[in-house]
Design goal:
It contains 3 helices and 2 strands; from the N terminus they run ααββα. The protein is mainly alpha-helical.
């Protein structure tokens, strides 16, 4: 329980609203976001794609930055120590 609360504070999703599928779809169409979903008011990390096939991440979510940084760091480490 403590770990879950700590991670929630770190990721910043405690007091944010989680949007429903319909709200995500409306936000994507009204803001012309078909390639990248960036909604700081949405606490969801993964959201449905505008095309309806699969999911994409919310680039405003703090975990997105952490994951992208980790992937880039692994790619650089692999290139350096190959």
């Amino acid at each position: 329980m403590f770990i879950r609360i700590t991670l929630s504070f770190i990721l910043g999703t405690v007091w944010q609203k989680k949007c429903s599928f319909e709200e995500v779809e409306e936000y994507q169409t009204t803001h012309n976001q078909y390639f990248f979903y960036y909604n700081p008011d949405d606490a969801n990390f993964l959201v449905p794609k505008a095309s309806g096939l699969g999911r994409t991440n919310n680039w405003a979510h703090p975990a997105s930055s952490i994951i992208i940084f980790a992937v880039l760091a692994l790619a650089v480490l692999h290139a350096v120590y190959k």
